[in-house]
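PROTEIN–LIGAND DATA SHEET

This sheet pairs a single protein chain with one bound small molecule, pyridoxal-5'-phosphate, given as SMILES. Inputs appear in the order they were entered. The predicted three-dimensional arrangement of chain and ligand is reported afterwards as a token string under its own label.
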Amino acid sequence: MTEIPFLRPNLVSKDDYLDLLAEIDASRIYSNYGPMNDRFEQRLTAELFDGTGRLTTVNNATTGLILAISRCKRPGGKYALMPSFTFPAAPLAALWCGLEPYFIDIRQGDWCMDETKLEEAVTLLAGQAAVIVPYAAFGTCMDLSAYSRWLKSGIPVVVDAAASIGSSGRHGQFGKGFEGAVIYSFHATKTFGIGEGGLVYSADEELIADIRRASNFGFSDARESAMQGMNGKLPEYAAAVGLATLARFNGKIAERQRVSGLYLKQLSKHGLMKRGWRMQKVSGRIAPSFLPVLCPENQQNTVYLKGLADLGVQARSYFHPACHEQLMFRHCPSGTLETTEQISGRILSLPLWEEMKTEHVERIVQEVDRFERACYLGMRGSSEGGS
Ligand SMILES: *Cc1c(COP(=O)(O)O)cnc(C)c1O
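PREDICTION REPORTED AS:
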């Protein structure tokens, strides 16, 4: 039985960017916002953001989060308010900026931060909220209007949109037009994978100019370090891979949506939705990195992870354990986290990659179905009802 891997990154191949590498050889410029990076940024601005706002590349999204939080955070503030149901990059970035993560519960349904609970925490913490860091869970086009209001009221907002390049709502690319900072990742495992890389976008052009300086040692025009900067720059080689990826991006999105469509069909064909399995409620068109799904309420994702691995299906459980359950963040303050704990105990991330065929998805869903019947429903035998 062949193993089905969780991910099978499919980055552009060398033939797609050999010409660009030759240009780099000829230019003798390898970093420091060179011509390849300039071209990549210009095309991202034009093609993803319709020419509105401004953006700056970074060497990964975690660097982008650190730089944005560091430049935005409210002086005298102590806490970075964020969901616990996220990747540890966000609370780690807060710690690097001298802030303490303060975890807020998520909503049932779209698995994004619960804004009612966030509002309560903002009130409770009074002036101590330094920044709010929402996460657009798994690339969903979450509604940012409440965050725009917090921004206007003086609380900075940095959106972790690591998985959101290619996600678009009514107004186009998710994040477009937002006045806070929005951070995207180009990690190899993301839909727009180039290896390592990231992007910081904002409709506030001065904010981006400031973050860009911080990403280059905080240098002023006189090359004097004038702020707490670092080296967050993207190499020219990575920008070349990025340009080649842009040319193929719509095809990649279409492949991923094809596979997620296959899952929907198979999940309902096997009656899983009727038995209490749940998909994320997403808004907009998303370009999924994998397929997140919840097992029924009285079941445990860890049981499936082990069971599926034995059957040759490599699954994951993003985000289990949730951040507040991880060693580094156990001491961090939080509101109640009931929904987070419930969802993180049920979430399964199923394989999704561009070359997946109908047979792959059929087999995965069939194994999930069989495993549930055998392990939880007390039925052995075929998926057609057992014997
Ligand atoms: C991938 C990811 C990151 C980290 O991105 P890098 O580019 O690898 O630093 C941060 N947050 C979330 C939610 C992610 O999925």
